[in-house]
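pinging the channel bc i need a second pair of eyes. not urgent but kinda urgent?? the chain im working w is below, pasted from the shared doc
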Amino acid sequence: MRFDLEGSNPLRIPTAFRSSPPPTPDEELERFAALQSRLLDRWEKVRSLDAGRRYIVVVPSLSLEGMSYSSVAGFNHYEERMLFTLAMLRHARARIVYLTSQPLHPAMIDYVIAQISGIPSAHVRERVSFLTCYDATPKPLTEKILERPRLIERIRRSIDPERAYMICFAATHRERSLAVRVGIPLYGLDPELVHLGTKSGSRKAFRAAGIPFPAGVEDVRSEREVGESIADMWEADPKLRRVMVKHDDGFSGEGNACLDLDRLESASPGNASHSGRVEAVIGALPHMRFFAKHENWPNFRSRMQALGGIVEAFVEGVDKKSPSAQLRITPRGELHAISTHDQILAADGQTYLGCRFPADPQYRLAIQDDAMKVGEVLVSKGVIGRAAVDFVTFRNPDGTWGRSAIEINLRMSGTTHPLRLMKLVNDGKYDPNTGVFRTRRGEERCYVASDSLMRPEYKGLAVEDLLDIAAVHGLHYRPWTDSGVIFQLTGALSQFGKVGITCIGATQVEAQQWFDATQTALDREVGLPPGMLSVPDVTDT
């Protein structure tokens, strides 16, 4: 034993770090169930202002099985979007441990903390800790953390495991494993229920909820099943023009394909036998329109065989829009409507680019009501956490709006952080009776948001440059008017020329004006001509 130089006191030499072996699958399920039984108590105590400290571990990992991680520009920087969770530090006893793949820019952390209304920035800073993997590889953050047992131990040392829970962007088997390894419950979907959020699971939930959704078939896997299903649908509706084929785990339009039946007129009902129609459809599958870049039928077919998918009628109609309704299910099993949005999609009509809040008043309460019916089905299955239901709406000949539910997302989505950022800056509240958001002064607020403001010419702009441009052009959020611009995804700007913005105004017209002004300012600063706006103008309020 070694002794110090002053006398006979032995020095405590740290033993070598030894991580405990990961639990077996059965042990993990057992431990996870035991942890989840404590979630309600932890969640309620974090929300209370008692004398004890409470900890929230934030894991903003894009754990999405249907995503091609390497194809998403600035993939790792999407972890920045959950900085809205710092608003939870309004609770004076709350503390946050925030995990990332790479260190966040200090200026961005200061920027978000400064936006939190109603609490001194210094009091927030001392109650948030950031831990990082220093790993830029294109794979989910949670997977990186699980590969680093010493980092897991640092998480444990940063919290009191008896007073903590974990929140994440999406809950999969990875997040379950991490919750068990850290020893804290997970406020999110039990991964055993993830099938409820697949395309097939969504259709089954819609059917149970009794809401409108497209004609179709779930749980198809083989080429033959796809052909038979389409032939049956065509015979049931000879006017059917287009059919969607979707992977069960497709993400943001990837994993979707469209078959145009007008090109198969010789095989239409009345012109061919059932078997002839099936063979004609199967022969046309390689020529479908695939919405993922570089997709082809052999690869698409292979993934469908492995994971399953659906076939459903393409929703036709005039003046089509793609709104969504967001829900929250608490650990008590309470169901809340928290927002509606009109999604902004790319020209292909499938790829998500951004959103407008709130959705059109002509249908927003109708889709919210449908989503709540779906939420009741999810509650009955034991789901907790966030969920979103996507719809297609269309104008009927009599001028009314029809609607059709398309899918459920059992996770945070691209519409989550804009709303939470707006709440962060003005501490307002969503009114489910009207579908609008009101500030603490009772004033209505809207926004236009996108994570896809991207130009090659923006590359090289640092976070400091962005904040300076915003200051010079008067774009920053203005608390005295509760309007302006909030930036996110700033870490992707210099390398990828990509940044996210949430533009808040008293009307959607004003919010769009903030959006246009921001892009105009950035374009001007990099020498681009005006008039190249990414998001279409809004023509009403």
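so The chain has three domains: 25-187, 215-314, 319-525. and The longest helix spans residues 508-525. — does that match what u expected or am i reading it wrong
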